Amino acid sequence: MTTVTKNKQLTVPRATAWQVLQDLGAVYRYNPFVKSAEMISDRKCGVGARRKCVHHDGTETLEVVTGWVEGRSMDIAITESALPVTSAWAHLSLSDVRGQALVTMTVNYVPRWGVIGQLLDSMLLRDKLGERLETMLDGLDRYLATLAVTGPAHAVA
Question: Structure pTM?
Answer without folding.
Answer: 0.91
